[in-house]
Amino acid sequence: MSILFEEIDSQPSPIGTISLRRRRIPIMGDRDIYEVKLGDEFLMSSYFVDGEIALADCGLRPVTGDNLSVVVGGLGLGYTAEAVLNHDNVGELMVVEYLPPVIGWHQQEKTPLGATLNADPRCRYVQGDFFALSASPEGFDPDQPGRKLDAILLDIDHSPRALLNDASKPFYSEQGLAQLATHLVPGGVFGFWSNEPPEAPFTELLRQVFAEVEVHEVDFHNPFQDRMATNTVYVGIK
Asked: Which fold would CATH assign to domain 48-237?
């Protein structure tokens, strides 16, 4: 096994083989880069985390009060979850993850932030289908069905059009988003990360459901392509 590359784990899942890898690219500095792949598709790299962190920061900025209850949909490598926990007014974080291997990687601290998340008593993992939980009147907390939340932050699909699984398509409709909004307190926030620049149709869809909508562009340099890249964080305020 090359010291420049290691496949830490690979397991089958209902939507394809999920794998965790670690590599070093000497020209990019002396540090480990962690990657998550689904089949042949890259889902996440620890080299690009600006958008994941911005999802937490932009999503929580409009929320007032203390002891906030927050849901993050999609665990990935844990960067959105860590950024949420960096906000002192967060009292509880539930990270909803569909794939048990991804939760296992963090619990076993095979990921770079596993130890950090495990050590924070505010954080717990919920194994489940985010989109099914959103569509359900019981919502996201298995211990308190029907509970209202201060913020729900979603980072699963690549964009409103580029979905990992077509089963989530109904969520990206006025009805689907309106149902999600029922799980928020008044003034609560829905945040959504997209790998693409802002899309006017999705912004207008959010405006049909939420009282206020913010669109944040997150620019960062992509050294693999030697160009600037843009992610988007959409924020809907109930």
From this structure: Rossmann fold (3.40.50)
